[in-house]
Amino acid sequence: MEVITIDFPDIRFDMIWNYKELFIRGIWVTLGLTLIGYVSGVILGLLLGMGKLSKKKWIYYPCKYYVDFFRGTPLLVQILLIHLALIPTVFGESLGYFVSGALALSLNCGAYNAEIIRAGIQSIEKGQMEAGRSLGMPRGVAMRYVILPQAFRRMVPPLGNELIALLKDSSLVTVIAANDLLYAGKVVAGAYARFWEPYITVAILYLLLTYIFTKVITYVEKRFSNSYVPSQRRRIFSFGRSAAGG
Question: Ranges for the ABC transmembrane type-1 domain (predicted)?
Fold first, then answer.
């Protein structure tokens, strides 16, 4: 019986060290694209989610078609359309990979966040809105101070998952020559004609960033959960401030 053996090449991480500035810049570009895309996506998603709950057709249908388009087409195609077609047509020239990448990620993230926000709002019992209206609150005020704070607690886990997904999806901007993490790996692989070291490094760095984001999301989920109890030190500090104020 023939035994199949796999010979792994000698790992040379010295080549990664030689290009450390490129990887560091790639980390910052990746973080910048992710955070800008996510924050913009949350704001856009809130507007779209509220629009999909509107009873006015001229508000509902544009929001619905927007969400359907960006959720139903690949992000890679959206990046290429925005970078090669939309921005040059509107501005007459390319504005660079960062603007195109951030815009594509923001528009795509906004569509997914819209569904998260819509579902979160609809998960709140209708009696909550009726209670706010019975106290004399206009619908907008009741939505802001009664519905959204309760819905946000339920939105935190899926919104956190969307952040992690966006971090990994940001690697797609390398197709428009963005100097992100994946681009750094491709440069090193091309310079040395070796693939284990650069792509393992890229994978490890993405894993590290994902781990950090996951820890932050876990803290936020715990902080906004109904069972959250402040630490003893914080409660003592709060009591001291209350006593001093009293």
Answer: 27-217
